[in-house]
Amino acid sequence: MNLNSEPHRRVRRQGPVTLRGNQIPATTTDQRLLDRRGPADWVHTDPWRVMRIQAEFVEGFGLLAELGPAVSIFGSARTRRDAPEYLIAEQVACGLVKAGYAIITGGGPGIMEAANKGAVEGGGVSVGLGIELPTEMGLNDYVEVGLEFRYFFVRKTVFIKYSQAFVVLPGGFGTMDELFEALTLVATGKITKFPIVLVGRAYWAGLLSWLENTMLAHANIGPVEFGLLSLADDAEEVVEIIRSAHAGLSLDDPAPETLVLPGDIGLGS
Questions:
Q1: CATH no. for 54-265
Q2: Where are the domains of the chain?
Q3: How does pLDDT run across 49-104, given as a tens digit for each residue?
Q4: pTM of the predicted structure, to 2 decimals
Q5: Do the Cβ atoms of 197 and 73 come closer than 8 Å?
Q6: How far apart are CA 46 and CA 175, in angstroms?
Q7: Range 77-82 contact pairs with CB under 8 angstroms and sequence separation of 24 or more
Q8: Can you name the residues that pair with 146 across neighbouring β-strands?
């Protein structure tokens, strides 16, 4: 059927969109924008969500654009303040800020609070990138630069974009998600290679054994991917791994071409 042969058929063009017949709305876009009457369902539509997502990227990028070299620290929100891991996270963050890095965390309690506390006590920059969750209430008291996100994937993009290293302490599903997100992006070349340090050899031993004896043994990853992980048990080790990886490189460059990691020569190094 040739639509051009039907002069009675109405056509409306809205930018790149063409509408005909019954698909043409009864009112114009401007009319609907300026009319304050009617339901507010439109704020929950997918096109409006796209705008909210875009706004979160703009806010995150704008907030951290001048942050400088930074390290993201991950771990359980359930870690108690009297737990050994809490103290280690505090010491790691304090050591890293004294080495010239800002600290970025998820802004919540537990390991995140400890790292933000260590950054403040070390005289450095303490950043918290929170997430809207029913089980967590706002940013911890040690966050000095903070932003709360609605969308996990926007938050993870900001973590990746502004970090020169990841430090992963004992944690649960969220920590594992952040760990494997970083590993996947580095292994596939989507981001520049940077240090990924697991803190607590005993805690991570089971996972590493499975990765080596199952995943690596089945050739689903290679030795290079397995070597992306470094191990440490105390704060001094963590700081040294990251400093050595960045040795000779300008920390002001957020995307160095190559990094030589201790993990490249085996997890035991």
A1: 3.40.50.450
A2: 54-265
A3: 788 888 888 888 988 989 999 999 999 999 999 999 999 999 999 999 999 999 99
A4: 0.77
A5: no
A6: 29
A7: 77/106, 77/108, 77/109, 77/110, 77/111, 77/112, 77/136, 77/171, 77/174, 78/109, 78/110, 78/172, 79/109, 79/110, 79/111, 79/114, 79/169, 79/170, 80/110, 81/113, 81/114
A8: 128
